[in-house]
Amino acid sequence: MLTDHLVYRLLPVQVPLFWEAIKFACAKADEVPEDCIGNYFNHLLQDLLSDKAQCWVILDKDKVLVSITISRIVLDPISSKKIVEIQCMYAVSKQNDLIWAYLYQLAVDFAKQQGCIDVVFRSRNPRIWEKAATYGCKEVTRIYSFGLNS
Fold first, then answer.
1. Distance set, CA 111 to CA 42, 65, 82, 100, 116 (Å)
2. What is the pTM of this model?
3. I need a surface site. Which of 16, 34, 55, 84 has the fewest CB within 10 A?
4. pLDDT tens digits along 46-65
5. Closest CA to 48 of 80, 9, 75
6. Counted domains in the chain
């Protein structure tokens, strides 16, 4: 339990209040290429406002933003069962283990509440890989790209 932090799932009408912070966090965490940023944010905003994506924020005791997480409920392409996909997880400041544990449990509880069979995420960040292993996550795949325009 986080006693000195506030955790919120933003309602769609609250998204505009956090939009600049969401854009910053997602651009950093998702490493969006500059030439794709407009399209990326148009889709993200539409999905957040229509509740197709969820935004979770953690504020400290002084109501200063600590982290932003974007999740989506999607169908697994193989099983056709619902999963929670963590699209973006961005820490404004260094996260302590209690916050990581809380975010992990939040994702698990949300997935169960939504009737999902799994929680999945992608990351290029070795610190996230370490934390994932700590919570018993297993690596499912690696994605490689061979750019044709380079």
1. 26, 24, 9, 17, 5
2. 0.87
3. 34
4. 999 999 999 999 998 898 89
5. 9
6. 1
